[in-house]
């Protein structure tokens, strides 16, 4: 019993929740991208590949920027972030072209991008860095807030918790929260949002009142590419620093599940991602006790994926997405 | 009995359809190779040298041909798995996980059944591995049938779970005894005794100078024919195709969509499992977590290129097996990273997907014509 | 001055000329009916006017000025509005959101919902089309949804309103209301084109009738100068039997017996609230009702596509209440579904494969799980011949057949199975007159050979002409029963909307039901 309490007090620290938010961020960004894309009626299985390509481009540019543009490491990383977003947009335009203009099967097109991303990033690591597996590390973005003050005593504990959970994060983590809120508001209160929802439910109805289905869907797919780009940028340039092959490890698919769980809303996607983030954060901390809990480490690593399946099993039946999703639009 | 003008017209239409169905995948492959060449060119390589090395590596000597056949074998299985799934309206993207479980199952079975002679162990292991693959697809199948959970996400998740599970097993309960299982080496299972393996061709037919091609290839070819027969001439195949095309009309026609979904995805899982089975039994004779070069994902390209036709899976798999066999030589001789093969794979998928659009256009125009009969 | 004029419009699709040099003019304050059977080219013509299709020849003039209409946006800007047969409404959105979609009042992209709502309320009062601006479309009955569509066109500033088969989904009373709305719109200066194939409506409300056949205009008359028979002759090109002569029915024992049936719909609400009825052998029982009053759920419960909450269904004494579709088919029930593309046929299968669907797992089509191609081919050829399905061979894909031939294929399968009970739901939807005649004859033939037939249809004419007995369903209950030949469409309409002989029909102000 005492060992259980011991584990509890060791694990339940501010860092548990702070880490949950950090882990959730790339998931949330990608999931919100998925929300926007699917709300317009286009399935985006390619979030995984888009994140991967963006992460690579971001790192590569961040590594090259000091030499090319004679800037300091932090600025170089910011340039890398922009490059990641651009890469996401360009890569997603391929999916948009295949799905919207060519009316190919959207799941197949998305899968092709995932495989292409895997192959292309592995290829480019060899070409650019003459080795396989991992690139060098770029400078990661520092936390946004740094406070010199530190109260002591009881207030100190509260401060530790508050600053630990909410204030110690790098910029894109905050960006994710802001994007979630703004996107939610925009979806229900702006012209763009209303038309987007119409596109996903009944594109022909939108077409007959003069809304361009093609343009609306292209924009949605490209936006999801940009958000996946931010997700990839966060993964390398805010968390790890370097890029390694297949570093997304299925996050793109977990993001899809988060979108479904969040009922195709931006805020819902964020909260669902937070849940997945928390589960993984917990799992990482519990691993340290694997000899006490007597569970092999691989089972902890499986948890995020098992959780995804459980979520889908429990919630899919009651979650119905946009009515026209996955069906290419024909002008007839 | 002479044919009426309408019957002749229909026959000619069918020949043209067949011709088009063969020509367009070839064009897709060609376009993929051309795009691949451009990538090589842009990144400073020599495409001609690359493709020459690729060809040599795949078909240059009988040894290389054997390599190609060996690498094509698991791709026939995964290609069949995904093709069958597609015909039933399901995208079994988690074939990789199912083949891992198949490989793990026979790695265990091969040791457990060791006292028995080969004509018992081999069939039992084939069946056991297939069942393991089917079992791994069962939960995603059930979730899809009961709750509508998208099989792309669930089978993908199960794929990751499988890899961690195999890693755990190879590090623990199934760890090879002795010097093989020491820390610092890749975790492997115990070596299989000879009666639990698939013979290589050159062991049976001593005059064939291939080195690595094994019996699994024949099993794969036979299975391709069996799957084709099932789809075409059995009620299971009829119902799978019906649900794949239109689950609503199928339901109205008395077909249980839930049952057909589960059966179809499990059959797909079984076929994928066999890819792992034959790799372990025919090539490595033991299980490791590095034993798959992404066969589950290459299977997607194979199935799409074959247009989900089980018989066409064989040449499509040989093509990708050739690419894989030649890649090593390409890296060595032309200094082009072997990852180019993965890129070409993805490009093939793209061009095949684009080409179906062309077919769709043609079909629509045909529909307008016959609709007013 | 003609507000809209079409000169020599031609539209060609591969293999067929949909519009051959059609000319038409429309003045403000006028209702012109565009009459023709299914496939005559009327919808194509109006889709050209609305910008959904581009013409291959001819010109369009609005207010005497030639215009090019290449998209609905351009049509709307010119004051042309269209209410489609299948509504263009986004179900999860509200009435207001649907009406303002595309022209939302907004500041810097942010929608001003107060203003939007105000405008909608104003419009609805001005034209007498009462709606609740805040309900979701999915909660509205069909008649109300149509009002929203009309309001949408008016919001967009339509001066020319095109209504495509607007009465297909309405009760006789709702049709009366619709026409009174149309007349008041026209009195306020709008011009209306009414696309229809219903002769009585044309004579009732139109100022002028333009008749189309096979893509061309074959005549233009005023209603007072003509009658149903001559209009029908113009529409079809030959004398048409408007009602099939049928012999007396001789019912012979009960085939289907339904008692206290309770069924819930997809939204977990009770759609069928305890119905009792029998279908006897050798009779056609027709169920008349407005779409969405439970008739579909009754059929789905009988064939096994939906589980009843309570009650019993018996076929020839056997309980089939909870039987699956497969068991129900085996028990002797055949079903011609409402939507032949979705539920009736597998369009990617060929004719033979479609013809065995339902008993494909039994002899002679298969044995022990193995299919028997020779037997399948033989039976398929027989059926195709007996049911006059026009196709080059049995290996043609079902999607390449015309609508009429597709429906014949479904009939061939369902009747070919020699069922005890034949259920036909909307069997002639979207078919031309020749195909309609064929289908009606086959259904009567089934009844004459002693089978039981359950006919569910929204076309009152069809129910009245075929059924030996008619039940009216309203809000999940049977509210009236009539012997065939003793009732007319108006009376049926009264009961279909909840009225009775002794009361005025319930108004359709109802809006959302609970």
Written account of the structure:
The complex is a heterotrimer of chains A (332), B (373) and C (514). Chain A is mainly alpha-helical and 332 residues long. Chain A has a single domain (2-140, 162-315), classed as ABC transporter involved in vitamin B12 uptake, BtuC (Orthogonal Bundle). Helix content of chain A is 74%, strand content 2%. Chain A has a two-stranded antiparallel ribbon. In chain A, helix 2 (14-39) packs antiparallel against helix 12, helix 3 packs parallel to helix 5 (106-129) and helix 11 crosses helix 12. Chain A is globular and about 65 Å long. The mean pLDDT of chain A is 88. With 373 residues, chain B is mostly helical. Chain B has one domain (57-370): Orthogonal Bundle (ABC transporter involved in vitamin B12 uptake, BtuC). Chain B is 75% helix and 0% strand. Chain B contains 14 helices and no strands. Chain B has helices at 5-42, 47-59, 62-87, 95-112, 118-147, 151-171, 201-204, 216-233, 235-245, 247-252, 257-284, 295-305, 310-334, 340-370. In chain B, helix 9 (235-245) packs across helix 11 (257-284). Residues 369-373 of chain B have low confidence and may be disordered. In chain C, the strands form six sheets. Chain C has a six-stranded mixed beta sheet, sandwiched between helices. In chain C, strands 18-21-22-15-23-24 form a six-stranded mixed beta sheet, with helices on both faces. A four-stranded antiparallel beta sheet of chain C has the order 2-1-4-5, with helices on one face. Chain C is of the alpha/beta class. Helices cover 32% and strands 27% of the residues of chain C. In chain C, helix 6 links the parallel strand 9 (160-164) and strand 10. Chains A and B meet through helix 5, helix 11 and helix 14 of A and helix 5, helix 6, helix 12 and helix 14 of B.
Summarize the structure.
The complex is a heterotrimer of chains A (332), B (373) and C (514). With 373 residues, chain B is mainly α. Chain B is 75% helix and 0% strand.
The span between the termini of chain B is 24 Å
Classify the fold: give the CATH topology of the largest domain in chain C.
Rossmann fold
Gyration radius of chain B, to the nearest Å? 22 Å
Report on the biggest sheet of chain B: none
Task: Please describe the topology of this protein.
The complex is a heterotrimer of chains A (332), B (373) and C (514).
Chain A: H1 2-11, H2 14-39, H3 47-69, H4 73-101, H5 106-129, E1 134-137, H6 153-167, H7 171-189, H8 191-201, H9 203-208, H10 213-240, E2 242-244, H11 251-261, H12 266-287, H13 290-293, H14 297-315
Antiparallel strand pairs in A: 1-2
Helix pairs in contact in A: 2-6, 2-7, 2-10, 2-11, 2-12, 3-4, 3-5, 3-10, 3-11, 4-5, 4-10, 7-8, 7-12, 11-12, 11-14, 12-14
Chain B: H1 5-42, H2 47-59, H3 62-87, H4 95-112, H5 118-147, H6 151-171, H7 201-204, H8 216-233, H9 235-245, H10 247-252, H11 257-284, H12 295-305, H13 310-334, H14 340-370
Helix pairs in contact in B: 1-2, 1-14, 2-3, 2-13, 3-8, 3-11, 3-12, 3-13, 4-5, 4-6, 4-11, 4-12, 5-6, 5-11, 8-9, 8-13, 9-11, 12-13, 12-14
Chain C: E1 2-13, E2 16-27, E3 31-35, H1 42-49, E4 57-62, E5 65-67, H2 72-77, E6 80-83, H3 95-100, E7 106-107, E8 110-111, H4 113-127, H5 142-155, E9 160-164, H6 172-187, E10 191-196, H7 199-205, E11 208-213, E12 216-221, H8 228-236, E13 254-264, E14 270-280, E15 284-288, H9 295-303, E16 308-315, E17 318-319, H10 325-331, E18 333-336, H11 340-344, H12 351-355, E19 366-367, E20 370-371, H13 373-386, H14 403-416, E21 421-425, H15 433-448, E22 452-457, H16 460-466, E23 469-474, E24 477-483, H17 489-496
Parallel strand pairs in C: 3-10, 3-11, 6-9, 9-10, 15-22, 15-23, 18-21, 21-22
Antiparallel strand pairs in C: 1-2, 1-4, 4-5, 7-8, 11-12, 13-14, 13-16, 16-17, 19-20, 23-24
Helix pairs in contact in C: 14-15
């Amino acid at each position: 019993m005492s060992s259980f309490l011991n584990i509890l007090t060791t694990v339940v620290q501010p860092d548990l929740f702070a880490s949950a938010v950090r882990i959730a961020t790339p998931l949330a960004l990608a999931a919100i991208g998925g929300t926007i894309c699917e709300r317009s009626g286009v399935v985006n299985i390619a979030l995984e590949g888009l994140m991967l390509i963006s992460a690579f481009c971001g790192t590569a540019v961040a590594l090259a920027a000091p030499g090319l543009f004679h800037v300091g490491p932090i600025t170089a990383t910011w340039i890398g972030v922009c490059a990641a977003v651009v890469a996401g947009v360009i890569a997603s335009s391929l999916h948009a072209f295949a799905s919207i203009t060519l009316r190919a099967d959207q799941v197949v097109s998305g899968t092709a991008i995932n495989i292409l991303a895997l192959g292309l990033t592995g290829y480019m690591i060899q070409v650019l860095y003459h080795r396989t597996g991992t690139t060098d590390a770029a400078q990661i973005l520092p936390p946004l807030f740094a406070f010199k003050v530190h109260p002591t005593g009881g207030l100190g504990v509260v401060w530790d918790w508050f600053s630990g959970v909410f204030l110690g994060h790098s910029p894109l983590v905050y960006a994710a929260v802001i994007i979630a809120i703004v996107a939610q508001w925009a979806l229900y209160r702006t012209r763009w949002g209303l038309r987007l929802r119409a596109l996903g439910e009944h594109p022909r109805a939108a077409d007959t009142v003069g809304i361009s289905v093609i343009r609306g869907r292209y924009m949605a797919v490209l936006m999801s590419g940009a958000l996946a780009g931010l997700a990839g940028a966060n993964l390398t340039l805010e968390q790890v620093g370097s890029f390694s092959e297949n570093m997304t490890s299925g996050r793109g698919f977990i993001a899809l599940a988060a979108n479904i769980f969040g009922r195709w809303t931006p805020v819902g996607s964020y909260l669902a991602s937070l849940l997945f983030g928390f589960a993984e954060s917990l799992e990482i901390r519990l691993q340290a006790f694997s000899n006490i809990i007597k569970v092999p480490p691989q089972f902890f690593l499986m948890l995020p994926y098992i959780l995804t399946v459980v979520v889908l099993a429990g919630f899919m039946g009651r979650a119905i997405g946009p009515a026209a999703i996955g069906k290419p639009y024909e002008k007839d | 009995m002479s044919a009426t003008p309408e019957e002749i017209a229909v026959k000619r239409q069918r020949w043209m359809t067949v011709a088009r169905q063969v020509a367009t995948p070839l064009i897709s492959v060609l376009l993929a190779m051309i795009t691949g060449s451009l990538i090589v060119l842009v990144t400073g390589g020599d495409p001609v040298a690359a493709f020459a090395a690729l060809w040599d590596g795949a078909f240059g000597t009988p040894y290389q041909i054997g390599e190609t056949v060996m690498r094509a074998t698991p791709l026939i299985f995964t290609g069949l798995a995904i093709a069958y799934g597609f015909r039933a309206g399901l995208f079994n993207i988690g074939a990789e996980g199912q083949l891992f479980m198949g490989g793990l199952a026979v790695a265990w079975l091969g040791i457990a059944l060791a006292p028995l002679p080969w004509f018992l162990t081999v069939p039992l292991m084939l069946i056991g591995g297939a069942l393991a693959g089917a079992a791994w697809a069962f939960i995603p199948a059930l979730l899809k049938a009961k709750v509508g959970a998208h099989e792309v996400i669930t089978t993908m998740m199960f794929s990751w779970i499988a890899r961690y599970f195999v890693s755990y097993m190879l590090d623990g309960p199934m760890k090879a005894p002795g010097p093989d299982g020491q820390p610092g080496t890749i975790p492997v299972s115990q070596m299989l005794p000879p009666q639990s393996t698939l013979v290589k061709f050159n062991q049976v037919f001593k005059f064939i100078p291939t080195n690595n091609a094994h019996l699994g290839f024949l099993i794969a070819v036979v299975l391709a024919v069996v799957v084709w027969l099932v789809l075409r001439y059995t009620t299971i195949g009829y119902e799978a195709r019906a649900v794949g095309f239109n689950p609503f009309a199928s339901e109205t026609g008395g077909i249980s969509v839930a049952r057909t979904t589960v059966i179809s995805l499990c059959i797909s899982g079984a076929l994928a499992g066999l890819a792992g089975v034959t790799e372990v039994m025919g090539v490595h004779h033991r299980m490791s977590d590095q034993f798959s070069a992404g066969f589950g994902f290459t299977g997607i390209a194979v199935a799409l290129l074959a247009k989900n036709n089980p018989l066409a899976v064989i040449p499509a798999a040989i093509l990708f097996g050739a690419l894989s066999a030649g890649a090593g030589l390409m890296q060595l001789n032309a200094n082009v990273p072997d990852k180019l093969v993965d890129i070409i794979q993805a490009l093939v998928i793209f061009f095949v997907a684009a080409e179906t659009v062309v077919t769709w256009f043609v079909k629509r125009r045909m529909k307008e014509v016959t609709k007013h009969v | 001055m003609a507000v809209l004029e079409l000169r020599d419009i031609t539209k060609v699709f591969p293999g067929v000329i949909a519009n051959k040099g059609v000319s038409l003019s429309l003045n403000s304050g006028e209702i012109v009916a565009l009459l023709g059977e299914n496939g005559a080219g009327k919808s194509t013509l109006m889709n050209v006017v609305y910008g959904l299709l581009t013409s291959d020849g001819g010109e369009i003039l609005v207010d005497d000025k030639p215009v090019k209409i290449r998209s609905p946006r351009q049509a709307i800007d010119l004051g042309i509005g269209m209410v489609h047969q299948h509504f263009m409404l986004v179900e999860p959105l509200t009435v207001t959101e649907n009406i303002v979609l595309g022209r939302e009042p907004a500041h810097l992209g942010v929608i001003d919902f107060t203003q939007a709502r105000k405008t909608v309320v104003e419009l609805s009062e001005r034209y007498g089309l009462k709606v609740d601006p805040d309900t979701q479309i999915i909660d509205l009955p069909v008649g109300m949804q149509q009002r929203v569509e009309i309001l949408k066109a008016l919001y967009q500033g339509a001066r020319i309103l095109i209504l495509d088969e607007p009465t297909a989904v309405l009760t006789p009373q709702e049709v009366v209301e619709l026409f009174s709305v149309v007349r008041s719109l026209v009195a306020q200066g709008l011009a209306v084109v009414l696309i229809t194939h219903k002769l009585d409506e044309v004579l009732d409300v139109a100022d002028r009738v333009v008749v189309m056949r096979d893509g061309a205009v074959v005549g233009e008359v005023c209603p007072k100068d003509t009658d149903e028979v001559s209009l029908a002759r113009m529409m079809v090109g030959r004398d048409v039997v408007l009602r099939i002569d049928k012999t007396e029915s001789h019912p012979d024992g009960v085939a289907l017996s339904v008692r206290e049936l309770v069924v819930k719909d997809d939204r977990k609400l009770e759609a069928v609230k305890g119905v009792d009825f029998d279908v006897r052998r050798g009779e056609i029982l027709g169920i008349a009702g407005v779409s969405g009053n439970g008739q579909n759920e009754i059929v789905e419960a009988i064939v096994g596509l939906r589980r009843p909450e309570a009650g019993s269904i018996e076929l020839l004494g056997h309980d089939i209440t909870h039987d699956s579709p497969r068991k129900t088919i085996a028990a002797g029930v055949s079903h011609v579904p409402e939507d032949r593309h979705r539920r009736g046929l597998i369009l990617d299968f060929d004719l033979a494969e479609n013809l065995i669907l339902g008993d494909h797992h039994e002899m002679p089509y298969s044995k022990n799980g193995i299919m028997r191609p020779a037997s399948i081919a033989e039976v398929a050829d027989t059926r195709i011949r007996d049911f006059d399905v026009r196709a080059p061979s049995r290996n043609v894909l079902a999607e390449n057949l015309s609508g009429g031939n597709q429906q014949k294929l479904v009939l061939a399968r369902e009747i070919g199975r020699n069922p005890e009970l034949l259920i036909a739901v909307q069997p002639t939807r979207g078919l031309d007159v020749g195909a309609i005649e064929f289908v009606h004859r086959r259904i009567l033939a089934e009844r004459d050979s002693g089978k039981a037939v359950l006919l569910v249809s929204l076309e009152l004419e069809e129910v009245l002409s075929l059924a030996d007995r008619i039940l009216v369903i309203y809000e999940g209950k049977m509210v009236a029963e009539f012997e065939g030949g003793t009732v007319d469409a108006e009376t049926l309409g009264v009961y279909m909307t909840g009225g009775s002989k002794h009361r005025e029909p319930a108004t359709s102000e109802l809006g959302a039901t609970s």
